[in-house]
Write a structure and sequence with these properties.
204 residues; alpha/beta; tt1808, chain A; seven-stranded mixed β-sheet
Length: 204
């Protein structure tokens, strides 16, 4: 039995609209010819010296009792941005915020955070809540990058984050499969593991 198409021919869709859709993520990804697999992800961690880690953790722990995280903007500015600035410090990766990307009329919008270095890239989607739908948007953004970049790298990696919770995804380009990691990383409890994973993705 053929299921009806979700995306209407000739209609334009932004990345944000996929977050707002009520369809199952598997069905949305199938529109582009990709599959979804939920499993434990083995994410290597950097062994580099993290000279700012203790300071970052202290600042987050000290500020959390006094800040309101009821908006996406607050989570981005107070939790995600400080962490990513340290990632740039460790890796010398380029960081772009609200990076505009248009691949097709059905794959376009802005990437909240786009980091890249030689042969490496990472996209991060920030959300106030609803990691599940946020992951769907991240997956579509990874598909857009798969079609956009010309490199030979076999996988593309991304994360969706509410600031205090992070979830990773990996797009396997040859198989056209997106792997959704089952492990959630919490800030500040899992901060060191999280930072080491992010550094490893981008380090030279």
């Amino acid at each position: 039995m053929t299921r009806p198409s979700i995306l209407q021919p000739g209609q334009s869709y932004t990345f944000r609209q996929y977050f707002e859709m009520s369809y199952e993520p598997e069905d949305i990804l199938a529109e582009f010819g990709y599959t979804l697999k939920r499993s434990l992800l083995f994410l290597p961690q950097s062994t580099a010296t993290l000279d700012r880690l203790d300071n970052l953790k202290t600042r987050i722990e000290e500020s959390l009792p006094y800040i309101s995280l009821t908006s996406e903007a607050a989570r981005r500015e107070l939790l995600i941005a400080p962490l990513l600035l340290d990632i740039v410090h460790y890796t010398r990766a380029q960081l772009r915020i609200e990076y505009p990307l248009t691949v097709t009329e059905q794959l376009k919008g802005s990437l909240d955070y786009y980091l890249y270095s030689v042969g490496k890239l990472l996209v991060i989607e920030a959300k106030n809540a609803d990691l599940a739908k946020g992951f769907t948007q991240l997956a579509v953004e990874l598909i857009a990058l798969d079609k956009w970049i010309d490199s030979e790298q076999p996988i593309l990696q991304g994360a969706v984050s509410t600031g205090d919770i992070w979830q990773f995804g990996v797009l396997h380009r040859e198989q056209k499969q997106i792997q959704q990691g089952l492990t959630l990383y919490r800030v500040p409890d899992d901060l060191e593991s999280l930072v080491r994973i992010l550094v490893k993705i981008l380090e030279p």
